[in-house]
Amino acid sequence: MPAAGNYLRWITLCQALPQIGVYTSIGLGSTVLFLNFCGAQKQFGPYKYILNSFTILGMIFAIVDVIVYPNVHNYNAGFIVFTFVKPFGISDLNELEILLASYTFFYAATIALLSTQFLYRYWGVFAVYKLRYFKRFYWLFWSVFCSYFGLQYALGTLFCFKMDTTFMEYFREEMQYRYDWNISELPALILLAYDPSNGMVRWRNVSGIANSFYIVTTLYGIMMFCGWSMYQRMEEKIQNFSEELKKHQKQFFKALCLQITAPTMVLFTPVFVIILLPFFDLPVSIPSGPFLGLFTLYPAMDSLIGMYVVSQYRQTARKLYQDFRKALESFKRARTTVHYAVPKLSEPYYYGTCIDLLDRFPFEKTAKIILQPQLLTLNYLKTHMADKDYVLEHYHLDIKDLPRFEITPLDANGLRLKNVSFMITGLLIMFIHYFVILYCGLRMNHNICDALNKMSQGQQKI
Question: Where are the membrane-spanning stretches (predicted)?
Fold first, then answer.
């Protein structure tokens, strides 16, 4: 017989997989969002919002997994979902059980949004007029759609899989033997298909399984229907499309084929095995936690599939790389020339070259307005040690230990052109912004009466 606590090594694996998943999901997801932001999604239409939303939701799902670290153990006619960690210092068992249930919310919401992707691509080929349901205020419906399945899964899990005395007695020895833990002190959600005393079906737990099975099969069914229909009829429907649109549709279909294969292996099959195994009442003792650890790998896999299949991502990445190299070479030339020719004026030239580098990227104008002052600050406000004695005397701190920026226009050596340049440029930026506000306000005050006379009553009120 294995030694007591022999499944504790699986806990290490259950915590390692989510950590790998969260780093890869955030890394690849951030790359997808960056490429989308830089122009890869220009030809995607409303589909870009689904892609961005799914990427962000996948990263959140991976983060929640790392916070909760859920584990599963199947034993004969039951299973238990539990955690050994106490996130945010929470020690109350009921609150920890709510956190476990919140994990299922993000799981269900993620696969609901994935099914929405399939539905969009299906309508994009066979019912283009229905794509209007992904525009404007219709987006609220899809938010409610994903939230509905997430809440139904989470609430069903919380209320139907509540720990009770019968289950505690059934699992007490098993949990003590396998994990060296008292089940009474463990936050957990449970399923016991049959009452061990009389063999009767425990309908409360079965209704929870029915709820989970309904949600998973419904969403998976949408994906299978859309995917199979596109496989059977897509070639015929896109004959009249332009070559560029045909290429996009085929790429997205290829991506969807991979996207339905990956969740089948990573998201759906493990769930079916875990929730259906207790109904066979087999004499098994399985640490099923690593199956849940695979869930967090899916967002990273989805991002990788999208970047691999859809050519716009590769084209955008290639263009960004080429632009970055050109801008970097320009920056180096400007830095070398100015540094040796006019040392005192080098920093303003560095700043101008950084702005040129920023302009080479297809960011939105708003983002450029936000980033330019940050570049200004990073270029001009290099740390200075002029106030180290003052800081030490009044705050009893060594200035070297403080993260800081300093504005010191004058020191013992005279005028510090770097800081003066920052002050002048910063004041100029604020003056321009204030002038725009003041000008618009004065013009509105001067012309508003004439303009209002040309408007309707409702517009005048606004």
Answer: 20-37, 49-69, 100-120, 140-161, 209-231, 252-279, 291-310, 420-439
Which whole number is the average pLDDT over 3-27?
A: 82
- Contacts by 247-251 with C-beta closer than 8 Å and gap 24+? 247/311, 248/43, 249/124, 249/125, 251/309, 251/310, 251/311
Bridge-partner residues for 348, per DSSP?
Answer: none
Which phi and psi (to 5°) does residue 256 adopt? Answer: -65, -35
pLDDT digits 0-9 by tens, 191-228: 999 988 888 999 999 999 999 989 989 998 998 898 88
- Domain hosting 80: range is 8-309
Whether 108 is in a domain gets the answer yes
* Pair 67, 158 in one domain: yes
pLDDT tens per residue, range 297-337: 888 888 888 787 777 788 888 888 887 787 777 666 655 55
Q: Name the nearest CA neighbour of 6 among 83, 69, 73.
A: 73
Measured CA to CA in angstroms, residue 452 lies from 39, 205, 355, 438, 439 at distances of 40, 65, 41, 20, 19
Is residue 84 in some structural domain? yes
- Find where tokens 């090594």 sit: 9
Q: pLDDT digits over 97-106, tens only? A: 999 999 999 9
Residues 401, 405, 407, 410, CA torsion sign: positive
Residues 218 and 299 in one domain: yes
CA 209 – CA 272 distance, rounded (Å)? 10
| Whether the Cβ atoms of residue 82 and residue 190 lie closer than 8 Å to each other | no
Residue 79 is assigned to a structural domain of this protein = yes
